[in-house]
Fold:
Amino acid sequence: MKLSEMTREQLVEFKNEVQSEYDSFKARGLKLDMSRGKPCSEQLDLTMPMLDTLNSSSDLKSENGTDCRNYGILDGIPEAKKLFADILEVSADEVIVGGNSSLALMYDTITRAMLYGVVGSERPWCKEEKIKFLAPVPGYDRHFAICEKLGIEMINVPMTDNGPDMDIVEELVANDSSIKGIWCVPMYSNPGGTTYSDETVKRFASLKTAAPDFRIFWDNAYCIHHLSDTPDKLLNIMEECKKNGTENRVYIFTSTSKITFSGAGLAAMATSIENIADIKKSMTVQTIGYDKVNMLRHTRFFGNKENVFEHMKKHRAIIEPKFNAVLSALEAEIAPIGGCEWSRPNGGYFISFNAPKGCAKRIVELCKEAGVVLTGAGATFPYGKDPDDRNIRIAPTYPTVSDLSLATKLFCICVKLACAEKLLAE
Amino acid sequence: MKLSEMTREQLVEFKNEVQSEYDSFKARGLKLDMSRGKPCSEQLDLTMPMLDTLNSSSDLKSENGTDCRNYGILDGIPEAKKLFADILEVSADEVIVGGNSSLALMYDTITRAMLYGVVGSERPWCKEEKIKFLAPVPGYDRHFAICEKLGIEMINVPMTDNGPDMDIVEELVANDSSIKGIWCVPMYSNPGGTTYSDETVKRFASLKTAAPDFRIFWDNAYCIHHLSDTPDKLLNIMEECKKNGTENRVYIFTSTSKITFSGAGLAAMATSIENIADIKKSMTVQTIGYDKVNMLRHTRFFGNKENVFEHMKKHRAIIEPKFNAVLSALEAEIAPIGGCEWSRPNGGYFISFNAPKGCAKRIVELCKEAGVVLTGAGATFPYGKDPDDRNIRIAPTYPTVSDLSLATKLFCICVKLACAEKLLAE
Structure:
């Protein structure tokens, strides 16, 4: 029975039952973590053979003859550039292979814009009176943290089933030249699991922007992270931009953090040739180049993108049951009480859960008190402020299936309890 | 006979002889590179066994239980922090272990100062009207390039046999609050091979600075890179700073770029606990952390600092003969003609050569035309401008001994030719 249809008496009874379930859970002293989108040990184990691809008798030369052990090459060895180019469906000369963190590449890119500007800038962004970014919400907390740290004001743009609300995006960027960029996770978005529609991608490519140096930070973190036999498809934004002559507008990012090792993978970015040349002018000052031996380790392990795709199937086999465990618990426990919504993603790392207004913080708090850590309520919004206090990001991949089932059971109890409390307080 | 003592006739004859030697060298079509301080293949081979320390059956947990394959840990795994702490003679909680490039750590550090300021700053450095750095000269071109890129004005400070001229340093920093920092390579300096005296280090630690947020960028790249049985000793600047309560003043950098793999080693920085805390507040926004698997690979390979020191002896055995080849050629060929000076370093990667005024560019040009690439004349000075056009940095490590002998032979011919040309033109 839906909570909204219960009499006050029924609701009190419901709450009391749930409260006693909660109390007995709390007494168990759990210590579980569903807070971050981290791969589990089994997933990391899949990549252990990669460590055997290079040993003391290996030839550590790149296919172009470069000794990967020594200094040299800013933008990555050719075979690594090609692998990422194939995955991102761009050309190898549109790729820079970085260190182990695409977040670091994004931070670096925006920092360079602050200090030096980008192709088309009238001045460094830090010399502008005010800079703003659009933040599709709910979104990725680490994107928002970069803007907050740099003093870039964020404007929330609601996500739809097709991506950010493009009517709003178009209106804002056309009229405000202080809006210099937007954060996008275009495929299996974090946390909603949404893949941007073809129309959304086309509208991004053809945006009329008041700022001459507007940039799309296209964080394609989950481009090949499918959880379905009928995966989503994302239109190639680089190709669309080229049709519109706007290819300097987009910075595409990805990494192998959720393909090989999260802490020791490869990150890459793709952008126009003109942007690449501009970036390399700064990179040559800022580093001696990224770890080429690790690039070689990755490319020798995979060989080609088809093998990467095969590898991803093994990831799916490990994490799909975890997503299903959460989703079926929500279906069984939360669907009946009504008032909540959640995503059923075809890929990516998260389930986005929307509680009734004003309940998210309370749910996270209840979970925490009973020993289950969730991503903080509000984290999916700029400045940690979810205006409706509704959204919770569930990250099912890291715990074991049995821990996850337990944590989800508790989560459902906390949702029920918070919802009942809320209705009773009204 | 010294050129300066020759009659014009003798000088013309000398020049003609050298010119014909040069011409026959040129005809050989050499293609040699003495431009960068890169280790040679044999040196890199020393570290090949490191690749065997981790394989598919290894336990990739840090000593604190962290799975190095996954996300987590900003400042490095404990064993890597300890190894660098031991090498730099600081405590492990004063260390951040970074990626594969200490240059990138330096760039990051100065960029953070630009964008956010440092402990003690009144505002971000980029909000100051003007920022200046002191540049001991001759020095390292990549340090200077960072300042130039960021629009930080550099003021030359001459090097003495004890380090930068501290009378000048003290005078400048006491009276100009726009001077925010200084670049130092305190041990086996690049290119001069000078190790700062105890007095110099003490004077750095007790500097009275007009800027409340003055910083010493202490690039201790060659701290254990000895070429002698009686190596130089550098006073511990962190300890000296602590005696003066100035420990927030110093950022120490080093790396294994010339210990393990130049392109795939570890970099580290050391500074006060207060600075570390401040830096980590930014780091948590800018990256998911550096490659912990590579940290583990290094610490398992070395175990402790004593083994690192043993490893460095093997490097010395490879490169010391190269230094000696250059030095004995200079002694035999250039000492007799007079007018030139060069360093005889106890360690590091370079020989600093001072030609007569106005000759350095010409020498580099002559070498280049005959197929030997040297570091560009002027590169050891800010903005590439050697006011006396004297200094040339010789990097003997990368070529084979036979290539190096050939290149040095040519270098000596070019020096003679340029000196003779110069005298004849006067």
